[in-house]
Specification:
Blueprint lengths: L6 H10 L3 E4 L5 E6 L8 E9 L4 E6 L5 E13 L5 E3 L3 E4 L6 E16 L1 H8 L10 E3 L1 H4 L3 H9 L4 H18 L7 H13 L5 H12 L3 H12 L3 H18 L14 H12 L3 H4 L5 H8 L20
Antiparallel strand pairs: 1-2, 2-3, 3-8, 4-8, 5-6, 5-7, 5-8, 7-9
Helix pairs in contact: 6-7, 9-10, 9-12
C-alpha cells in the first residue's frame, strides 16, 4: 500500500545510513556509531548522549535488551515499571526491561553507552537476562580493578571515537573472562531474530522453526529466551509487535495501516504505550533524540543477523 513504511524498507534505510548518526539540533543530543571489527558479534553500536542544561531532564526510555553505560558527567535515577527507583551509577549495566521505564537526570550530562546484541549480553555480562530485568547492575564489577582507571580515562575525553578506543580493549578482555556462547545456541538466536522481523510473529512459528533448525523443544526455547532476552516468547512477541508499530507510527504511517496485528485500536495504543512510554499521538513529532534514533534505526535492536558477516576476529 502506498505510504506504508514496511519492515524491509526500514531495514534497507538503516543499512543505507552512514556509520555515524547525530540526532538533536537543540537540547539533548545523541551521537551514534555502529560497531565494527572483533566486537561486532557482541556490540551493535556505541553512543554519546550530551545535555548541557543545568536543571532536570526527564524522559521515557523504551524497552530494550541491555546497555553498558558510563555516566561521565551528571547524576540521576531510573524509575522502573513497578514504580521502584534506582540511582544511576558511574558505570552501570541496564538490564533488559519488561516495559518502558523513565529517567530523571540533573545536568550537565555526558553519558557514553554500549548497545549490546543478545550474544553480547551472554558473552560480556554473563548473567541470565531474566535475573536482572528492570534493574541497574553496578558495572564496576565487570571491569574489577580496571574500573577506576577506565573512568579516569573517559572523564578526560569528550569525543565518541576516543571513548570507543578506550572501551574496546576492555570489552575484549571481558569477553575472554566470560564463558563463551555455546555454538548450539547460534541457530536459536538466528531463528529468534528472523521470527522477530516477520510481520506478525506467532509462537508456534518460533517453536517450529527452532525445532527444525536446532532440535530444541519448547521448554528449551523458553529457557533460552529468558536467558538471552529477559522474557518468555509470549513477552517477546508483544514487544516486537509494539516496537514495530511504534516505528511505523513515528515514521508517519496512518493508524489504520498499523493496527492489523492487534485486537483493535485500543489494544494497539495500550501496547505501544506499555513498551515505549508513549501513545501514538505523542510519538508523532516527538523531539526526544534517543527515541528518534531507536525508532528510525530499529536495526539497533532486533532486525539484523545475530552474527554479522563478515567479521574479522583479529580486528580491534
Amino acid at each position: 500500500m502506498r505510504g506504508v513504511t514496511t519492515i524491509k524498507s526500514i531495514v534497507a534505510d538503516a543499512h543505507a545510513h552512514p556509520a555515524r548518526d547525530i540526532v538533536g539540533a537543540s537540547g539533548p543530543t545523541i551521537e551514534l556509531k555502529r560497531a565494527k571489527g572483533r566486537l561486532l558479534p557482541h556490540v551493535e553500536s556505541y553512543y554519546l548522549f550530551r545535555w548541557e542544561g543545568e536543571g532536570e531532564l526527564e524522559r521515557s526510555e523504551r524497552i530494550d535488551l541491555g546497555h553498558i553505560r558510563f555516566l561521565i558527567q551528571g547524576e540521576g535515577e531510573m524509575t522502573f515499571p513497578d514504580g521502584h527507583v534506582e540511582p544511576l551509577k558511574p558505570i552501570m549495566v541496564a538490564g533488559p526491561g519488561t516495559a518502558a521505564a523513565s529517567y530523571r537526570m540533573r545536568g550537565p550530562v555526558l553519558c557514553f553507552g554500549v548497545v549490546l546484541r543478545a550474544i553480547g549480553w551472554k558473552a560480556l555480562i554473563g548473567i541470565p537476562a531474566h535475573k536482572v530485568t528492570d534493574h541497574i547492575i553496578d558495572g564496576e564489577k565487570l571491569f574489577c580493578e580496571r574500573a577506576p582507571r577506565l573512568l579516569e580515562q573517559l572523564r578526560d575525553m569528550t569525543q565518541l571515537d576516543e571513548m570507543i578506543s578506550a572501551i574496546a580493549p576492555q570489552l575484549i578482555m571481558r569477553q575472554e573472562e566470560v564463558k563463551p556462547v555455546p555454538e548450539a545456541h547460534f541457530p536459536f538466536l538466528n531463528a529468534v531474530r528472523e521470527w522477530a522481523a516477520s510481520e506478525d510473529p506467532t509462537i508456534d512459528a518460533l517453536y517450529g522453526t527452532i525445532e527444525a533448525t536446532s532440535g530444541l523443544g519448547e521448554r528449551q526455547v523458553q529457557r533460552l529466551c529468558l536467558e538471552y532476552f529477559g522474557g518468555p516468547p509470549t513477552k517477546l512477541k508483544r514487544k516486537f509487535r509494539a516496537i514495530r508499530a511504534a516505528m511505523q507510527i513515528f515514521q508517519g504511517a496512518p493508524i489504520s495501516d498499523v493496527v492489523g496485528p492487534f485486537a483493535d485500536q485500543s489494544h494497539m495504543i495500550n501496547e505501544v504505550k506499555h513498551f515505549t512510554g508513549h501513545t501514538p499521538t505523542s510519538l508523532r513529532g516527538n523531539g526526544d533524540p534517543a527515541l528518534a534514533l531507536t525508532l528510525q534505526n530499529e536495526g539497533l535492536h532486533f532486525l539484523p543477523e545475530v552474527i554479522p558477516e563478515p567479521v574479522d576476529l583479529r580486528a580491534a
